[in-house]
Design goal:
alpha/beta; seven-stranded mixed sheet; 11 helices; 17 strands; about 25% helix; binds NADP nicotinamide-adenine-dinucleotide phosphate; binds zinc ion
Length: about 350
């Protein structure tokens, strides 16, 4: 069992610190990788601080993983030693339920396995994520990365990318649609890039005036400050689709009022505590409030290939592993343009 250096949180209130964990020896269907880059998702912080009340400590976060294959099991057909490859939020699922059979492993009804903080399906132990030097994963959950893509800037696509791409595709965002992206962070900046590339008219909804120029550079056609009542009022009944990426408590009702008849607001951001929603904002205009969880493996591959074709990657700031605790504090302040990526080498 190869020992691997990592960074772990041992409780919700202590900083992440160096920790050595043991990866399994590769099984016949496994791929073993040295991790080169790992993105820092706000979910990592929610988990490390047990903000969703479901963390099992110690936890090694990180589910935006790009690495180089160092070994493959005897039955592996898709990868060979030396390939660059990715691992996202999922590392296993039952493959038998209706959702798994339809490439929606993220909704596996028998329990998908997250890349960290999950029990392995065979009960052999917990999973540990990408804040570590190496990882072992079934080849079915490993993603191909085009050599056209910058490896470090590709890492965030494995979560922030697929989490925004999947709902935009599911609700058929395209030309002629007015789309609002709420929150300009790791997910939000990918949401803007994708929605613009799909041909929609895109409005950035942000509570940070300092992000206006960036929103425009990313391709947003409009920028609206959500703290400005007049600007908010001007959007009444405006959007076909709003993608809500905000990580902290906020008022859904205000944004439901921005939907046109039959408009859809989809939450991907998961604030720690629930928020009241008034049915009035749903019945008037037949609005839908819904949510979406990452995306299946086939769709994640489709998204990576789409990014290679459309020259889309994440805007990143590279950090060292020992800078992670400062990075979390900066993430909470919205002080990142727009994704931290840990240089694991
Ligand atoms: P992030 O980089 O921290 O971005 C969150 C953005 O939310 C901020 O940049 C900010 O945008 C806005 N925001 C923050 N605090 C706010 C406040 N108090 N009021 C209003 N807006 C605020 O986080 P992320 O990595 O993109 O993740 C966003 C959320 O998605 C997290 O809750 C994460 O757990 C969740 N997530 C869900 C999935 C899924 O499958 N559904 C996958 C990945 C992540 P502005 O400054 O522009 O307002
Ligand atoms: Zn994530
Ligand atoms: Zn399943």
């Amino acid at each position: 069992m190869p020992a691997t250096k990592s960074y772990a949180a041992h409780s919700a209130t202590t900083p992440l610190e160096p920790w050595t964990l043991e990866r399994r020896d590769p099984k016949p269907t496994d791929v073993q990788m040295d991790i080169l880059f790992c993105g820092v998702c706000h979910s990592d912080l929610h988990f490390a601080r047990n903000e969703w009340g479901m963390t099992v400590f110690p936890i090694v976060p990180g589910h935006e993983i790009v690495g180089k294959v160092t070994a493959v099991g005897s039955a592996v057909t898709k990868y060979k030693v030396g390939d660059y490859a990715g691992i996202g939020c999922l590392v296993d699922s039952c493959r038998e339920c209706d959702n798994c059979k339809h490439d929606q492993e993220q909704y596996c009804t028998n329990g998908f396995v997250f890349s960290y903080g999950s029990m392995e399906r065979d009960g052999s132990g917990m999973t540990y994520g990408g804040y570590s030097k190496s990882i072992v994963c079934h080849e079915d959950f490993v993603l191909r990365i085009s050599d056209k893509l910058d490896l470090a800037a590709t890492a965030p696509l494995l979560c922030a990318g697929i989490t925004t791409y999947s709902p935009l595709r599911h609700w058929k965002v395209g030309p002629g649609m007015k789309v609002g992206i709420l929150g300009l962070g790791g997910l939000g900046h990918m949401g803007v890039k994708f929605a613009v590339s799909m041909g929609a008219e895109v409005t950035m909804l942000s509570h940070s005036p300092s992000k206006q120029a960036d929103a425009e550079r990313l391709g947003a056609h409009k920028f609206v400050l959500t703290s400005d009542e007049e600007q908010v009022k001007s959007l009444a009944g405006y959007f076909d689709f709003i993608l809500d990426t905000v990580s902290a408590q906020h008022d859904y009702n205000m944004y439901l009022g921005m939907l046109r008849t039959n408009g859809v607001m989809c939450c991907v951001g998961v604030p720690p505590a629930p928020t009241p929603v008034h049915a009035m904002g749903l019945v008037f205009g037949r609005h839908s409030l819904t949510g979406s969880l990452i995306g299946g493996i086939a769709e994640t591959q489709e998204m990576l290939d789409y990014c290679a074709d459309h020259n889309i990657v994440s805007d990143i700031e590279m950090i060292r592993m020992d800078e992670i605790n400062d990075a979390y504090e900066r993430l909470l302040k919205g002080d990142v343009r727009y994704r931290f990526v840990i240089d694991m080498a």
